[in-house]
Amino acid sequence: MSQESKVPIRLGFIGLSTTGWASIALAPPLFEDPISSRYSLVAVSTSKPETAEASAAKYSELASKARGTSITVKPYHGSAKHIVSDKEVDMIAVSVKVLDHKGAAIQAIEAGKDLFIEWPVGRGLEETKELYEAAKNKGIKTLVGFQTRFTAYALKAKQIIDNGDLGKILSSTFIISTNGFWGPFTSSIHKYILSSSNGATLLDIPGGHALDLFTHILGPISSLSATIKNQVPYSTLLDSNGKPTGETVPNDGPNQICISGTLANGALFTVHLQSSMTEADFNWIIHGDKGVLRIVDDSDRTTKQGFFDASPDVYLNGEKVGIDVDVVTKRTGLNWEAFAVGDTSKFADLEHALKMKEVLQAIRKSSEDGRRIDLL
């Protein structure tokens, strides 16, 4: 049941620069209807004073245009303590490298601010658990960047299944391949993703996003068995022009993840996630006792990374189903909107993030021990 919160929510944004993921995907919806009436960006924080000033200038202009009045976005830099201490900020958004998630988010929580944080919500299960417990104890509301559940194909698939068009779900197979990241070549700025201790492996980031999408539509996993393997133990670093630097570093995260098991509704499932493939792939089949749903990306697979830029078509019993044009800012906008109006059935919070980290932990444990893990 939806219950609209007070608006606008005064937002302070840690990690919002003039370029990068947050500027491309997360911020634009804040300056467009209907999100612009629900949020007011009042402050930004970056690592350096010059980037903070540039960011504040850019978003002051955008905010002023969106609201039809002069708005000044305040610049902060360095420690998160500055922006979280601002009494004119109701909510803090954190979109920085996973290495810095906990440090920024815990300060926002301790300051009593509501929190948006990008997945993977800290390095490993323990950091996510610490953030969840801190937020619960403080009584703040949280929003996690699981935006893939708001893609056009995901919304259509959930509608079809919730309407009962497939009947009882019997099984599901999900195959995802990427031809970028976590492979034999890695950009120098992404060197940190190659160490599993940093919580940014193929399983941690795409795996978490994919399994959130999977379970949001089909329901929770009851039990699973998994095999994960690293077939690319070293990666050559690339410079900003995409040319090899000559430096090769260890890669100890998996590039093959095979999972099978049972969902809470009794359906059987398999998920196969793999990186460093020559062709990307996105192929999701859901069988019910009344029909079959296929969500397949048949576009040029050599130019795609796979999961994050998939643009699949949806087929119900062999017939193509029309879906809306999908753009990343629409996904992120729907996530912001769901939180603002309090529609908890749609968005993920830190409790969802913790449950997903427990699933990822079970996948690792199953592979290490060679046994099935029961989750429910």
Automatic annotation (TrEMBL):
Molecular-function annotations in GO: nucleotide binding; oxidoreductase activity
Keywords: Oxidoreductase
Boundaries of every Gfo/Idh/MocA-like oxidoreductase N-terminal domain copy: 37-146
InterPro entries for this protein: Gal80p-like_C (IPR055080), Gfo/Idh/MocA-like_OxRdtase_N (IPR000683), Gfo/Idh/MocA_oxidrdct_glycsds (IPR050463), NAD(P)-bd_dom_sf (IPR036291)
Record bears the keyword Oxidoreductase: yes
Residue intervals of the Gal80p-like C-terminal domain: 154-295
SUPFAM superfamilies per record: Glyceraldehyde-3-phosphate dehydrogenase-like, C-terminal domain, NAD(P)-binding Rossmann-fold domains
Record protein name field: NAD-binding Rossmann fold oxidoreductase
Higher taxonomy: Eukaryota, Fungi, Dikarya, Basidiomycota, Agaricomycotina
